[in-house]
Sequence to fold (316 residues):
Amino acid sequence: MDIEDFVPISFEGRVALRGPGGPQECLKAFLDNLLGALVDAGCTAVGHVKGMMTGGGGEPLFFSITTLENNLRFQGGPLGDSDTYTLTMNVIVAGLEERVLTKTFSTVLRGHFNV
Amino acid sequence: MKLVIITGFLGSGKTTLLLALLKDLSSDGGRNLVVLENEVGEVGIDGAYLETHGLKVKELYSGCVCCQLAGSLVTTLSELREALDPECVFLETSGLANIQNIMGTMEKYCEVVGPDEILTIALLDIERSELIFEHDIPVIQNQVKMADVLALNKTDTGEAGEAETAAAELERMNPDAFVVPMSAAEGENLAPILDRLREWI
Fold:
């Protein structure tokens, strides 16, 4: 394994919750499924999956995952109530081509949020 | 102006350690400390996180200061010195940064950039110790070999004896470094690093 094996992608945009529960619950479900989908697609190591969600007049909610075993950690928050939130993310993983990583991310994101 | 470089692989806890150190150092009062944040991703996240804790942060993102953004690093350090005259700049590198290249840039442009001294703190994540000891990843090997302080992070998550074994191996790899097993997230054993920084700054 070397540094060149790690591929980064970024996302920044407005998202609306699709499922039940609040923004943190939706975010957790999204991140859990994202990690599973990345592993299924052939991801061999997580550099990091990190980001922040803002909106609703609350405090920014930060999150990060650094292992394939999903050590998801939240910091900050709580977010306020809103129809939409701003989601900002950087994903860097090994074992996937950028095209596959982008497609996997986009598919899982759209399964949990209206983008 | 002095420069502290906080480096370490992706997810090793650099931002968490930086925040813990700066919160403590800021409590001394009267310190003029600035953070220069570098992320390889196209959007900045760590800078926003640090700013929510009241720190002065300048961001360089969408590339790494060890290569694509080396010129921006030089320019930004020079601008920070001119505009804010900080006592110390804390540079958090991206998780993919090659510290050897950064030190080369600093050496080459030292008169322009002007850090009087540089202290390098490298974080190593005990949860992913295989990246340090089993894979021969040049970027991580350089971090270990070139660090003044080796912060062995997340020791609260390891098994009994794991931190001691890893610390001994790091001491073997870099006998000149100050090796500190700690947990940035839990605030455990940060005192040796803080003492070193207070003495040095």
